[in-house]
Design brief:
- By secondary structure, this protein is α/β, with parallel strands linked by helices.
- It is built from 6 helices and 13 strands.
- It has a 6-stranded mixed beta sheet, with helices on one face. Strands 3-2-1-12-13 form a 5-stranded mixed beta sheet, with no helix packed on it. Strands 10-11 form a two-stranded antiparallel sheet.
- It is globular.
- The model has no long low-confidence stretch (mean pLDDT 97).
C-alpha cells in the first residue's frame, strides 16, 4: 500500500499559503502511479474559519481518498460543517478508513484553545474499540497531529502530546498497529514510540529550523514537503520524504 502524507497547510487566504498547497497537490495528483490515499495530519486551516476550509476542500479534491484529522489551529465545528458536511459539533473528530485491507485511524488529539495535544477518554475508547473489532491480521495505522515524543526543539516539544503513556498502553494491547503518523512539528522526522515506527510529516507552510541550524525557528524559504509511506505485506513501513520545488 502506498500512502502520501501532508501536514500543516495553515491555509489563511493568502496567496503564499494557497500556492504552496496547490503545488504539492498538483505533484501528488500527477504521479505516474496513484497513491492509495492521502493523509492530512492537521492544521489544515490557520484560523479555523469556514472560508479556509472551503478553500481546503477545493485544493484537496483528488481522485484518491483524502483522509484528514484536525490540528491545534483547526476548529472542530467549522471543520465538521465544511469538510465533513455534518452538524457543527465541537466533539472530537475521529474516523476509521479501510484502504487496501489496512485500517487507518485518523484521530483527534486536539485540546480546543491549546497547542498541546491529548487523546481524551472518548477518543481512546473509540480507538480501542475500533482496533478490537478489526478482523484478525488486519494491519492498522494511527494518525493524529501532535507527536508523542520529544523532537529536541523547544517549539514542538512545548506542544507535544500529553499523557503519551495512555497511547503506549493502547498500542501495547493491539499488536496489529504498524506505525504512528503525526504532523505539528513542521519538520520531517522519524523515531519510535511504544516499539513502533513514529513518523512526523513535514509541513506545507514553513519548515522548522533546528537548534543547530540557527536561532529563528521558521524557515519560510524551504520548499513544501511531503512523505510517502509504503506498508508491505510483512507490516513493515518504509517512508520516503520529498520536497516540491
Amino acid at each position: 500500500m502506498l500512502l502520501a502524507q501532508i501536514s500543516d497547510l495553515h491555509l489563511d487566504g493568502s496567496e503564499r499559503a494557497t500556492r504552496r498547497a496547490v503545488r504539492v497537490m498538483d505533484y501528488v495528483r500527477a504521479l505516474p502511479r496513484p497513491v492509495d490515499a492521502l493523509l492530512v495530519t492537521g492544521d489544515i486551516a490557520d484560523h479555523g474559519a469556514e472560508a479556509e476550509y472551503e478553500e481546503a476542500a477545493r485544493i484537496l479534491a483528488a481522485p484518491f481518498p483524502v483522509l484528514a484529522c484536525p490540528g491545534n489551529h483547526d476548529v472542530r465545528p467549522a471543520y465538521r460543517k465544511v469538510l465533513l458536511g455534518e452538524e457543527a459539533d465541537a466533539g472530537p473528530v475521529n474516523r476509521v478508513h479501510h484502504v487496501g485491507g489496512v485500517a487507518i485511524l485518523m484521530c483527534d488529539a486536539t485540546i480546543p484553545g491549546r497547542d498541546e495535544g491529548r487523546l481524551d477518554e472518548e477518543t481512546l475508547a473509540w480507538m480501542d474499540a475500533t482496533l478490537t473489532e478489526l478482523p484478525a491480521k488486519t494491519r492498522a495505522l494511527i494518525a493524529f497531529h501532535q507527536p508523542p515524543v520529544v523532537l529536541h526543539h523547544p517549539l514542538p516539544d512545548s506542544g507535544m502530546l500529553e499523557r503519551p503513556g495512555d497511547l503506549a498502553a493502547l498500542i501495547d494491547a493491539h499488536p496489529q498497529v504498524a506505525a504512528v503518523l503525526t504532523g505539528h512539528a513542521h519538520t520531517a522526522a522519524a523515531s519510535t514510540f511504544a516499539g513502533r515506527p513514529l513518523v512526523v510529516g513535514p509541513a506545507i507552510t514553513w519548515t522548522l529550523r533546528l537548534p543547530w541550524e540557527g536561532d529563528r525557528p521558521a524557515d519560510r524559504d524551504q520548499p513544501p514537503g511531503l512523505a510517502f509511506h509504503v506498508l508491505d505485506d510483512d507490516g513493515r513501513l518504509t517512508t520516503h520524504y520529498r520536497v516540491v520545488i
